[in-house]
Amino acid sequence: MAQRLVVPEAMGPATTLLFNDWYPAMRSEALRGKTLAKQQIMGIPLVLGRRADGKLFAMRDACPHRGIPLSCGWFDGKDVTCKYHGWGFEPVTGQCSAIPSLTGHDTLDCSRIFATAFPCEERDGYAWVYFPEPGSGRVMDRTSLPAVPEVPKFGGRFRSAHLTAELPCNVDHGIIGLMDPAHGPFVHQSWWWRSRASIHEKEKHFEPIPQGFRMASHKPSGNSAPYKLLGVYGEPITTTIDFVLPNRRYETIRCGEKWFASLTTVTPTAPNACRIDVAAAWNIFYSVPFVKAIAMFFGKRFVEQDQVTMIQQAEGLRYDPTLMLIDDADRPAKWYFALKQARLDSARTGEPPRHPMDGPVTLHWRS
Q1: Is the pTM above the cut of 0.85?
Q2: Are 251 and 243 a contacting pair, CB within 8 Å?
Q3: What percent of the chain has pLDDT over 70?
Q4: C-alpha span between 85 and 68 (Å, rounded)
Q5: Rounded Cα distance, 207 and 24, in Å
């Protein structure tokens, strides 16, 4: 039975963001030498770079003196220097290291001044940035932060690849599109994936996990050509899919000793824009020539199909249509909104978040 969405504010032009967590800011390969890179995440302007010792950093792109973007200045591998008055900042902590205008008559201790710096770590080819709740002050104890997300791996010998696409929608629309199980035969219909003629009823088992839910290990859909290719190994094929707040979809495919794993994220960049990033690792067909180029070609096509659909959806959302979620295909979207609300309520009350799932659930849909 169809029902009206119970959180309409989350589906409008803006959405409530989840802080106190890690988000991928950009590909880390772009941060080299003395380059300063600009990026906007969570609506916050960032400047990112890599120190001479290899450590990544991320700062708010604004000098605390007069607000000019620090990205307009210089970086010598150690300190970021503001273009306006030459103030220097150690970029990992944000601590001010120099104010050239000070004289021996001044008593100001510049080391007590800090630009805003965010914890920043490199994983799977991305610069991950931790965003504390606005107004909570500097992150003093970085050892207590949650682990930086990364692609699951099941051996040291694997290939990897990355894909990205900008989406003209708020992060909620991007995420529920990411977890939507019914759009495949329509958005991704093609000879190498699925067709409308291949639609059939499916039964999947879900279970609660901390901050998310899991589509339990199962035999993958028989109407997806890539899965059929794994039949050459003669081993049972299983797939497990996890969704974890704030924005992460993990997929693991196992076929004996062969495996494929991916981490897909949808990251808010501006109030009505987000970015999808896919990081994947695998040892399937490891010795086959050009396998990475082939995977990148089809993966790019796959992500572009989602991107085009979200662009088209954005056109319809301009007119504020009435929206709905239905059972069972939209149940994961409902869980997402409930998990998000529970986390927001927990941050406000200090009580542990209440999971919307009481236990395992079996869902049915056609795709």
Answers
A1: yes
A2: no
A3: 88
A4: 10
A5: 27
- Tokens (6 digits) for 159: 């290939």
Return the residue matching tokens 């709740």.
133
Whether the Cβ atoms of residue 98 and residue 83 lie closer than 8 Å to each other:
no
CA dist 200 and 226 (Å) reads 18
CA angle in degrees (0–180, nearest 5) for 176-18-354: 80
Tens digit of pLDDT for each residue in 50-107? 999 999 999 999 999 999 999 999 999 999 999 999 999 999 999 999 999 999 899 9
For 168-257, where are the E strands, in sequence order?
Answer: 201-209, 212-218, 237-244, 248-255
Beta bridge partners of 58: 48, 118
Write the CA distances from 162 to 124, 248, 250, 276, integer angstroms: 9, 15, 14, 11
Which of 118, 171, 172 shows the shortest CA–CA distance to 148?
118
Helical H runs in the chain?
Answer: 171-179, 184-187, 225-229, 291-317, 331-349
* Domains in the chain, CATH or no CATH each: 21-131 (2.102.10.10), 159-366 (3.90.380.10)
Question: If you search the block for the tokens 């003196």, which residue do you land on?
Answer: 65
Q: Identify the sign of the CA torsion 137, 142, 147, 153.
A: positive
> Which is nearest to 180 in space by CA: 365, 11, 315?
365
Number of H-type helices and E-type strands within the chain: 5, 21
Burial of 120 (0-12, 13-18, 19+ CB in 10 A): buried
| Cβ atoms of residues 187 and 305 within 8 Å | yes
